[in-house]
Amino acid sequence: MSEPSDSSAVRFDPEEHISLCETLDRVLNKGVVIAGEVVISVADVDLIYLSLQLVLTSVETANRLRFEACPAAATRSEICP
Hints:
Blueprint: H1 20-30, E1 32-42, E2 45-56, H2 59-69, H3 72-75
Antiparallel strand pairs: 1-2
């Protein structure tokens, strides 16, 4: 089986111990998206449907990614689609 060619791929070593501070630093520098769905139903009748999306990143990383996606936003106060 070949190794992923992506340089940002994370490789886990069971013998390596990563501190909470290092983990938080990696999450804030790269960003994490957590998505989920919750359905509350009674007697097979869906009463409430929630679609949840959580983005966790630093402000600096969010701005950098926004400017990469829409360069016009870096120079003007435009809203990009």
